[in-house]
TrEMBL record:
Origin: domain of life: Bacteria
Name of the protein in question: NAD(P)-dependent dehydrogenase (Short-subunit alcohol dehydrogenase family)
Protein family (similarity comment): Belongs to the short-chain dehydrogenases/reductases (SDR) family.
Pfam families attached to this UniProt entry: adh_short (PF00106)
Length: 245
């Protein structure tokens, strides 16, 4: 069944992959991309049938009213809102800490304020219908140290935020979850991929490293699940993610 989906941080390739996955299986998508040229570039990369089910909202909102106005535009285009996907910020925390530590100290709270305001705009609509899904897709923390674009500080904050939001939203049948993606093939050269697989053999004999475009299919599990059955969970997908007992 086609669902109406809003995705943030569409300027990042990871979040565009998510949008492409959602469009490929028939969903309707509104994505926020700050720069209009970048939005048009992504739209042109899609097949015409998929592009017809995509709407881009541009700009850099700063006030709560601006977030709410963009969300109202999205809901008007989509005819409702079933799913809110908080796209990953892909922040290089170590580089920012080394180069501009003061900026890092300002950037992290600003990111969570932005998440809160997007979330508030979406939830105010979902509460009226007593139905909705909120998803935080992230890349596993420790992959950062193996040159994957992961943000440990933001990841831990999002997991904590998800737990709090889940408790608050469950009464309104709104499910809030995180999906954490482990090691994957980020278009590595054959030799580099083989070396990474060798290091990962502790997780399985000759482990398979899937491309992220295939791993994102697991988001369907959360999006298609009946409301009020899955909430407050961190789903870990792929090899190399530690098991929490």
């Amino acid at each position: 069944m086609s669902k109406s989906i809003f995705i943030t941080n569409g300027q990042h390739a990871f979040n565009q992959l998510i949008a492409t996955r959602m469009l490929s299986i028939g969903h309707r998508v509104v994505m926020h991309i700050e720069d209009s040229e970048e939005g048009m570039s992504y739209t042109r990369s899609l097949e015409s049938e998929a592009a017809q089910r995509l709407h881009i909202v541009n700009g850099m909102p700063s006030e709560e009213t601006e977030y709410a106005a963009m969300m109202e535009e999205a809901i008007s285009v989509l005819g409702g809102l079933d799913v809110m996907i908080h796209g990953n910020e892909m922040l290089d925390e170590e580089k920012l800490f080394e180069d501009m530590p003061d900026v890092l100290g300002e950037r992290i709270p600003a990111i969570f304020e932005r998440i809160f305001l997007w979330n508030k705009s979406a939830v105010s609509h979902m509460i009226k219908r007593k139905s909705g899904k909120i998803v935080f897709p992230i890349i596993y923390d420790t992959l950062y140290y193996d040159q994957y674009p992961s943000s440990p500080i933001i990841n831990h904050g999002k997991i904590s935020m998800m737990k709090c939001l889940s408790r608050e939203c469950s009464a309104f049948r709104i499910d809030v979850n995180v999906m954490t993606f482990g090691y994957h093939d980020a278009d590595f050269e054959k030799s580099e991929k083989k070396e990474r697989q060798r290091k990962l053999e502790i997780y399985g004999l000759k482990p398979v490293m899937k491309p992220m475009s295939e791993m994102l299919a697991m988001l369907d599990f959360i999006i298609d699940a009946p409301n009020s059955l899955i909430g407050g969970q961190n789903f870990e997908i792929g090899i190399g993610v530690e098991t929490n007992l």
